[in-house]
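Hi team,

Filling in the usual template for the complex we talked about on Friday. All components are listed, including any nucleic acid strands or ligand strings, so the model treats them as one assembly.

SUBMITTER: L.P.
PURPOSE: interface mapping
COMPONENTS: two
RESIDUES: 469
SEQUENCES:
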Amino acid sequence: MNKYLFRKILIYGSMIILCSVIQLNYPRELEFKDMIPDFLLVLTVIITYFNGLNDGIAVSVITGSVKCIFAGRFLGLGVLIMLYSAIISAYFLRKYIRTSIAAAVLQIFMISLLYFSITGAVSFLAGGTVYPVNIFIEWWIIERLFAGSVMNLAAALPVAFIVRLIPEVGKNGEIGSQYVRPMEII
Amino acid sequence: MENKGRRKIFVIAIITLLVCTFILFSSIPGSPLYKTTGPVSLIADPVQKFVTGAFDKIEGFISSIKEGQTIRDENKKLQDKVTELEQRIKELEENGRRWQELKEAFSIKELYSDYDLVGASILTRELSDWFDVFRVSVGTRDGITVEGKESYAVVDAGMHLVGRVYAADISSAKILPVLNESSVISAKLNTAGGSLLRVRGDILLKEEGLCLIDSISDFASLSIGDEVITSGAGGLFPPGLPIGIITAINDEGSYMGKSAFMKVYADYRILKDVFIMKGKVSD
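RESULT (copied from the run log):
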């Protein structure tokens, strides 16, 4: 294992642990409309955006498992959500812009909107409420879609800055073209 | 290049299939798959307890500083003493509260002598929609085993129903709260000959700590302020556990039909400890 790959695994591991700790102990006082940022989703999407689908798949399996083990009703659901968020992230804006922090944050916002739209639709169809669809949609847009996306957006910026510093490493240890030094970002 | 792409699709397809199989099997009540999370829980739980403790200490430290700043303006010397005393008072209040909870828990024990009460601390709370169960610090090694449709009622120190045990591994268990949209409880009014009702969670109501009451018979007379308790029907929850109080009643003509809103007694935001009532369906 070359030193870049080893360093990357170490950084990914540390970031997953850090994001999990923040996610699981997020202070209630910092909630917005009862929503907390999804640090694990943010981390998965941003790592995929900057460092490619291979890294994204590996990270999504771990972050998804963390969600399942600690708060999931169905084992595996978290992995499925994270995996497909990573796939979308790998082929969405990354196709056109590969290094922009602004694009990474925008990507988070759009994936959050998609994620909350899907969870809302499934929750409604699964009979999670007795309210009619128009009331549910109105409530979901304000309380979930908007609030959740804003919270994820807030978490995206610091995570994007840190992940941006991790170089994309190829199989043979070569560093990807999008790697920049910390000072270049600033 | 084409092969690389195909391989990637193949890997994604395999992971998806595996995950879907996992989801399917874990959706079976009492699935043994939950035992696979045991090793992770064994490592993560002590870390989680440590982190929670550290966060509590930091929170206490920050609040101490905040409280101290006002007093410091008035008298620097006195402030140090006051901060120290306030910290001590908080600790004593917390101890007093815990003592009261334990005392009340013992009264539950007298009331439900057929059930063993297993005390547990909350380790992690819900994260988001679909990831909305909370974990507590007891598991199969404490005798909490969820098999088939057998489960346990979970109550707070005031003997109010909190939820039920959803799954358990060796050192932790997942609790499905009463407010969750998957939760359905057979209940009745706490009056002489109180009518049977159905209490269920609703996505729109849970943030306000409310549940929906439906399946109300035509002859039932509900009033705002009526207490709702578990009926004992179905065998999952022992009869007579208080769940909440009726706060609003919807007419039959409304889009919800004849229904009511119930404010749940258990306050999930401040809940730190719960008690699992160990008694099986067949008991």
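MY TAKE: The helical segments of chain A are 3-24, 39-51, 53-71, 77-91, 101-125, 133-163, 182-185. Residues 109 and 131 of chain A are 27 Å apart (CA to CA).

Thanks, L.
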